[in-house]
Amino acid sequence: MAIKTHRLLNLSSGIASVSVALALVALKAWALSQTGSLAIAASLTDSGIDLLVSLGGLMAIIYAARPPDADHAFGHTSAEDLAALAQALIILASAGLIGWAAIARIVRFEAAPLASEAEGIAVMLTSAALTGALVLWQRFVARRTGNRVVAADQLHYIGDLLPTLGAIIALLASATWGIGGIDSAVALIAAAYMAWGALRIGGGAWDALMDRTADPALVESIAAIARDWPGVHGYHDLKTRTAGSRLFVYLHVELDGDQTLREAHAISAGLKRQILLKYPQADVIIHQDVARD
Q1: Strand partners for 239
Q2: Does residue 230 register a pLDDT over 90?
Q3: Which of 69, 85, 90, 222 has the most beta carbons within 10 angstroms of its beta carbon?
Q4: In a 10 Å sphere around its CB, with 0-12 CB exposed, 13-18 middle and 19+ buried, how is residue 113 labelled?
């Protein structure tokens, strides 16, 4: 039941992300045509990329929700990591393009005149409100389900808030003091933030695809459960890895060799239930060994 609920939450987040991205692209395209602001252009580019990323993320969520089959015994959740890695590469490329355009304008000492600042500000404020609402929902879903794609998408939209608010500042500066140079500076800062976020997302996805062990604090938490579990005399070969929002745990426990198979099974089954209680998205395999005297 919990897994089904998580899938529905992830799906709702993906649909909301695509819907908001479509609305933001339309609003910012109109604002750019009215103002000519490079900061709005940077924000529009980011939203356009977010739309592509959100569509890819939604497809990854749908695919990753498929149950294990004969060809994918551990499920399809690695699709989430592939989608997150693709997201990171796309964002990194777009950050480079925006940064290059901003630097070129600063070097040439160009401050492009802005127009229709009031309309642009209204659009960007609306964009900020839509983005903020989406981020709050994605944060709730990511915390409930641990979905990597949703978490990555949340970072994208948090990143959107910076260029969006920056564009508002640039438009206000142009309307109030006639200053246009802030526009390029805001675009450059937005590009740097996007690149930083892309490296973080890409690094996490790469680690998961390369079967890097889970977070050390999580591993220690599982070790503490096994160490203190009644009937367990010791443990070894604790291995973990992640695939999308799933956590895979492999553990050898040392039990009394004189007890019955039924008793040994009850101990390991209870330990497994306790781990799953704390980490519902985990897939736990426990091997029973005879404890040394």
Answers
A1: 250
A2: yes
A3: 222
A4: exposed
CA dist., res. 246 & res. 242, Å (int): 6
User: Which CATH number does the domain 2-209 belong to among 3.40.50.2300, 1.10.3210.10, 1.20.1510.10, 3.20.20.70?
Assistant: 1.20.1510.10
Find tokens 């993906």 and name the residue. Answer: 14
- Helical (H) or strand (E) element with 284: strand 282-290
Tens digits of residue pLDDT in 35-92? 776 666 766 777 787 787 788 888 888 887 777 777 777 777 788 788 878 878 877 8
According to CATH, the topology of domain 216-290 is Alpha-Beta Plaits (3.30.70)
Backbone CA torsion sign across 78, 80, 81, 86: positive
Q: Hey, where are the domains in the chain? A: 2-209, 216-290
- Give the whole-angstrom CA distance, residue 260 versus residue 210: 39
Q: Are 222 and 104 in contact (CB under 8 A)?
A: no
Closest by CA position to 159, among listed 101, 200, 216 = 200
Convert the pLDDT of each residue in 2-50 to its tens digit. Answer: 567 777 888 888 888 889 888 888 887 887 777 776 666 766 777 787 7
Tell me the three state secondary structure of residue 50: helix
Query: pTM score, two decimals?
Result: 0.66
